[in-house]
Each structure stands twice: as structure tokens, then as C-alpha cells.
């Protein structure tokens, strides 16, 4: 199995004819993903790489049965793109766009509560279930199918750690980049619940950052609810206080938001917390009872 994206995914690309949408649609198709539709207002009736393009999401869903959307539209229009996907009945919406205004996301997350749907992102690398579906901008060649679930606020660290897992023979069930903005659609706990319910996910890697308390809340959930072992890494051990590091949500604003404080909270919850990214693969091997690399 996998979570959020699998062989039943019928993907729709919002912004398929734009530069980013076109580039990544070709890569997702090359990964074997069933891309069934694209949407670009004003370009309905055209096709892109054999994929039909529609003017609206509702028409695309009606014609193709799309159940998942990935969004590549500019930031000022991203919220409207999410609303359109939710209103059309899309079950999983993945917003890659970065720079979405915070107030837009406040309204989107409020709207999302009234829908039976999952929003991943914004400002995220997406969802990748090796051998099943690629709903992402992640590099396909570093993945291999297996039993390690990955959930992360950092795209780049996701790539590094997935690559190191693959190199020691530990494949992945699904990798989910939830995004690094202060307000996102889906948090660590929601993804951890899905991994816990997935019988093929044997271990979970959680990659956090400085800022906020999402990792501490996840630690409490893991300690209370999860039987699947979790290995964690928190980026930003040397980050100076008060300075935003990369992501808008990655800023040390108090003692509890540092990488050190978060790692200590994870360890108090019985979670293996790595000191650096390259230690993660070894800790996963240990958690699974494999011989350490």
C-alpha cells in the first residue's frame, strides 16, 4: 500500500501549460503516473503530451474522473485554484506553489474544514509513492519501493534522506512533503495517522525544522498512539534566533522552537532523533532490526 497517492490516482494538473506545470507533468508521466487531465483557463480543447486540457476543474473531473490535483499556478491565484479543486470534489489537492499569502491560507484552511478532502502544501514538493504514483516535483531516480514512510517540512532534506535510505536498500512506501509555510493544509500528525494505518509502512522518518511547535505535538501523538517506529531529524541546530531560515515558518522565536529543544522533546517521547541527516538511514536500519550500514 501507500498513502495519499497510489495506483488508483487519476491526476489532474492545474496550470499544466505553464513553465513549471509543463516541465513537471512530463516528469510525472515519465514516472508512470496516470495524468488524466490538465486545466488552464482559456486553453480548453487543447492537449499537452497527449493529456486533454480543460478550462475548469469541474469539467475536467466530469470528463476524466480525476481524483487528485497538483497545482502549479502563480501565488496570487493559488487559493482560488485550491477552492476550485475542492468544489469539484477532488479528494487530494497538492499545492506546489510558494509565496501564497498567509491570509489566503487562513481562509483556505477554514474552507477545507467543510470538505472531505486533504490539502498538502502549499510551498511543498508533493507526494511520491515509488512504483505507484508521482504527484510531486521530487526526483524519481532516488526512490525505490519499500516500507519506509517519509514526512517532511523540507524538500531538499527529503531528497537527501530518501537517497541515503535507497542506497542502503531501504525503499519507501510514500514520501510526503507537507511544506514549510506557517499555515499549511496537512500537518505531521495527520500524515502520521495515515502511515500508522498503512500495513506496508514499517518505519516512518519525520523531518522537521525550527519554528512553531508542530514537532512537539507530533512527538506527543507518536508516544500515545503509534506502534510503527519513528526516526526524526530536526534541521537548524546552528540557526540564529530571530532569523528566518529558508522557509517562512522556519524561524526561532523562543526556546522551545529550536532544533535542540525539539530533538530533546522527541527523545523524551522515545523517538530516535538524529543529530545530522546522514545519521537517519542508520537509525532506520536499527529500528527495523537490520544490520547497520
TrEMBL record:
Residue numbers annotated as active site: 247 (tele-phosphohistidine intermediate)
The enzyme's E.C. designation: 6.2.1.5
UniProt keyword terms in alphabetical order: Ligase, Nucleotide-binding, Tricarboxylic acid cycle
MF annotations from Gene Ontology: nucleotide binding; succinate-CoA ligase (ADP-forming) activity; succinate-CoA ligase (GDP-forming) activity
Catalytic activity: GTP + succinate + CoA = succinyl-CoA + GDP + phosphate; succinate + ATP + CoA = succinyl-CoA + ADP + phosphate
Binding site for substrate: 159
Superkingdom field: Bacteria
Residue span, CoA-binding domain: 4-100
InterPro entries in UniProt: Cit_synth/succinyl-CoA_lig_AS, Citrt_syn/SCS-alpha_CS, CoA-bd, CoA_lig_alpha, NAD(P)-bd_dom_sf, SUCC_ACL_C, Succinyl-CoA_synth-like
UniProt pathway: Carbohydrate metabolism; tricarboxylic acid cycle; succinate from succinyl-CoA (ligase route): step 1/1
Known partners and oligomeric status: Heterotetramer of two alpha and two beta subunits.
HAMAP family in the cross-refs: Succ_CoA_alpha
Function: Succinyl-CoA synthetase functions in the citric acid cycle (TCA), coupling the hydrolysis of succinyl-CoA to the synthesis of either ATP or GTP and thus represents the only step of substrate-level phosphorylation in the TCA. The alpha subunit of the enzyme binds the substrates coenzyme A and phosphate, while succinate binding and nucleotide specificity is provided by the beta subunit.
NCBIfam families noted in UniProt: PRK05678.1 (NF004230), sucCoAalpha (TIGR01019)
Name this polypeptide is given: Succinate--CoA ligase [ADP-forming] subunit alpha
The species this protein was found in: Rubrobacter xylanophilus
Amino acid at each position: 500500500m501507500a498513502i495519499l497517492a497510489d495506483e488508483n490516482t487519476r491526476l489532474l494538473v492545474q496550470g499544466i501549460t505553464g513553465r513549471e506545470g509543463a516541465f513537471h507533468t512530463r516528469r510525472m508521466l515519465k514516472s508512470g503516473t496516470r495524468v488524466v487531465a490538465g486545466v488552464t483557463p482559456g486553453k480548453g480543447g487543447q492537449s499537452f503530451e497527449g493529456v486533454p486540457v480543460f478550462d475548469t476543474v469541474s469539467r475536467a473531473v466530469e470528463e476524466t474522473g480525476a481524483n487528485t490535483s497538483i497545482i502549479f499556478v502563480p501565488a496570487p491565484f493559488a487559493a482560488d485554484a485550491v477552492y476550485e479543486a475542492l468544489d469539484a470534489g477532488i479528494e487530494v489537492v497538492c499545492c506546489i506553489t510558494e509565496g501564497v499569502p498567509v491570509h489566503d491560507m487562513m481562509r483556505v484552511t477554514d474552507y477545507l474544514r467543510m470538505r472531505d478532502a486533504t490539502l498538502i502544501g502549499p510551498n511543498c514538493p508533493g507526494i511520491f509513492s515509488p512504483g505507484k504514483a508521482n504527484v510531486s516535483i521530487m526526483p524519481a531516480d532516488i526512490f525505490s519501493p519499500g516500507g519506509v514512510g517519509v514526512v517532511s517540512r523540507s524538500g531538499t532534506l527529503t531528497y537527501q534522506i530518501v537517497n541515503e535510505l535507497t542506497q542502503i536498500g531501504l525503499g519507501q512506501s510514500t514520501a510526503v512533503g507537507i511544506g514549510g509555510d506557517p499555515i499549511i493544509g496537512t500537518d505531521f500528525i495527520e500524515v502520521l495517522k495515515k502511515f500508522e494505518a498503512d500495513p506496508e509502512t514499517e518505519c516512518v522518518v519525520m523531518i522537521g525544522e525550527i519554528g512553531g511547535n508542530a514537532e512537539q505535538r507530533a512527538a506527543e501523538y507518536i508516544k500515545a498512539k503509534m506502534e510503527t517506529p519513528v526516526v526524526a531529524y530536526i534541521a537548524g541546530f546552528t540557526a540564529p534566533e530571530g532569523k528566518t531560515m529558508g522557509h517562512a515558518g522556519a524561524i526561532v522565536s523562543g526556546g522551545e522552537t529550536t532544533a535542540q529543544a525539539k530533538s530533546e522533546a522527541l527523545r523524551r517521547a522515545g523517538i530516535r532523533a538524529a543529530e545530522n541527516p546522514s545519521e537517519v538511514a542508520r537509525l532506520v536500519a536499527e529500528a527495523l532490526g537490520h544490520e547497520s550500514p
